[in-house]
Amino acid sequence: MTEKESLQQNLLAILTAQRQTALAAAEDAHNDATNEQSVAETQYDTIGLEAAYLAHGQSQRVADIEVMIKRLNAMVFKDFDEEDEIALGAIITLQGGMTCWLMPVCGGIKLDDGKIVVITPQSPLGQKLDSAEFGEKLDDGRLILAIR
Rg of the chain over CA atoms, in angstroms? Predict the structure, then answer.
C-alpha cells in the first residue's frame, strides 16, 4: 500500500466514524421529534419542531459525509515530482516544515500524527498551491520545498 493509499484509508476511517455519529444523532433527534411527549401543548412549545430541525440537519450531515466518502473512493493517486504542477492528490512540503495534502474534501483534518494537514483548493493556502510548482515562492514568502 502506498503512502497516499494509507492516508486515504485513514481519511475514510475518520469519515466513517463521523457518519456513524451523525447517523446516531439524526436517529435520536428523529425519535425526540416524534415522541408523544414532544407534542406541542401551546403555540410556544417548540420542542418537537426543534428536534425535527435537528434531525433534518443531522440527516443532511450524513448525506454530505457520504458524498465525501464517494469522492475519496473515486480518487486516483499519482506520484508527483519536481517537474509537475501541484494538483489534487499532491503532498506538498513548505518552508517552515508544514506538509499538506491537497484533496477535494476533508480540509483541516490532520493525518499521520498531525504531520500532514489536508487542505482543499477552496482554502486560501489551497488556492495559492493549486497549479504552483516546485521551488516557487508563495506570496506569504514560503518556498515549496517538495512535491510528492
Answer: 21
Is residue 84 helix, strand or coil? coil
Tens digits of per-residue pLDDT, 61-70?
Answer: 999 999 999 9
143-147 LR contacts (CB < 8 Å, sep 24+): 143/94, 143/95, 144/86, 144/92, 144/93, 144/94, 144/95, 145/93, 145/94, 145/95, 146/92, 146/93, 147/80, 147/81, 147/82, 147/84, 147/86, 147/90, 147/91, 147/92, 147/93
For the chain, the average pLDDT equals: 88
**Span 45-86, pLDDT tens digits:** 566 667 777 778 888 999 999 999 999 999 999 999 989 999
For the chain, the domains span: 3-74, 91-147
